[in-house]
Amino acid sequence: VAQLVFAAAVPHTPYFPRAAQEGGSSSRVTLSFQQVKSYLDRAAPDLLISLASDHFVAFFFDNMPTFCVGVVDAASGPYENSRDDPFMPWYEVKVNRAFAAAFLEYGLEAGFDLASSEELRLDHATLVPLHFLTPRMDVPIVPLFIKGLAQPLPTASRCYAFGELLRRFMDRWPGPERIGIVASGSLSLDVGSPRMGRVDHEWLDTVVALVRDGNAAELVRRATPQRFLAAGNTGGEILNWIALLGAVGARRPAFIEPDIQPPEAPRDAHAYAVWTMDGTA
Amino acid sequence: MSVYYLNKILYLIETDREFLERFREDTQAAIANMPLTAAERTALLSGDVAGLYRMGVHAFLLNSLARHLLCGLDRDRYLERIRQAG
Q1: Angle, nearest 10°, between helix axes B3-15 and B17-25?
Q2: Distance CA A254, CA A279 (A)
Q3: Can you name the residues that pair with A6 across neighbouring β-strands?
Q4: DSSP annotation of A118
Q5: I want to staple A244 with a disulfide (CB 3.0 to 4.6 A). Which of A47, A183, A274, B48 is the partner?
Q6: Which residues contact A3 (CB under 8 A, 6 or more apart)?
Q7: Which residue of B14, B48, B53 to mutate against A (max A Cβ within 10 Å)?
């Protein structure tokens, strides 16, 4: 049977591929992703569940799913015209379509009214983490989307339940996969708003402390839209972290490391975290 | 209010390369068929991002004007103007 062997939550900041290249092997971005990757390589998953929020690339207001499963054979990107930069390659990644299709059905049967997409454009939120963690794109993914930018947003408790649903499905999936989860999102970042450039240290500290303690229930309670949107207009990306917590259960991460970038002009507060599933740190 | 179509223009700028090129070459023509109010059209053409923000345009989408150096904007001018809406 399938086994959950690894989970990580990381930022997906679009300029990180450039920052890592320019900053070299000692840059914070490079070292942080390397640390996550070392755990991933040891766990050796052969399927990665991607939990990310679309940034108006796959979906727009004409048709805006709250929870969506990508049921495709493969997906590529990043499709944003502004991501046309020499530091971020164009990627195509295989999708485990059978797993995705079965999860969609399982959700609907369980009363979780998931949407699905059979033609999917990936953006940096899915691909920047993979760029650092599986740069050969040799591990198939299942792309899952939680609405995190286009309000109104789903509640934290519903996103936690979505993670629990995912875990129940994994535990009964008959395939031989070693499964990893990668949740993608910053914790305090404003893009394009009048508050751009401000960082909410209090929210970053709160989230990191609660995640470190394995206190998902308290995080779910505190992660109201009022609170996480006060931390930044991309604050809803924490919902991907919360879904991950629903899947891994009440357990402490092997590590969680907060970071604020760029060092010379802080505007993006986030964290890197890894959960190992055999209890070792 | 046709904020939906303002958002849609910004979405197309980021995801439709042909539209981006048309918008860059002749902005008025590129948006001619979009059902915008006169105020919305003027705000967009003049790069009045504070005005567009107050109309309810999504800030993440709005930022595409700065990313692609459109409507007379660059990073610094965008920041200076958007802060007027804060």
Answers
A1: 110
A2: 8
A3: A180, A276
A4: S
A5: A183
A6: A177, A178, A179, A277
A7: B14
Q: At what angle do helices B38-45 and B3-15 cross, to 10 degrees?
A: 30
Chain-chain contact of B15 with A81 (C-beta, under 8 angstroms)? yes
Q: Which of residues 24 through 53 in chain A touch B, CB cutoff 8 A?
A: none
Phi-psi region of A56 (alpha: psi -120 to 50; beta: other; left: phi over 0): left
Q: Kindly state the helix (H) or strand (E) to which residue B23 belongs, with its residue range.
A: helix B17-25
Helix (H) or strand (E) holding A75: strand A74-77
Rounded to a whole number, what is the largest CA-CA distance in chain A?
50
Q: Is A149 on the interface with B (CB under 8 A)?
A: yes
Residue with tokens 């900053």: A23
Whether the full predicted model's pTM is greater than 0.95, yes or no, is yes
pLDDT tens for residues A34-44?
999 999 999 99
How many angstroms separate the most distant Cα atoms in chain B? 33
From CA B51, how far away is CA B78, in angstroms rounded? 12
Inter-axis angle of helices A201-212 and A238-248, to 10 degrees? 10
pLDDT, tens digit, for every residue of B36-50?
A: 999 999 999 999 999
Cα A78 to Cα A57, A122, B69, distances in angstroms: 9, 6, 20
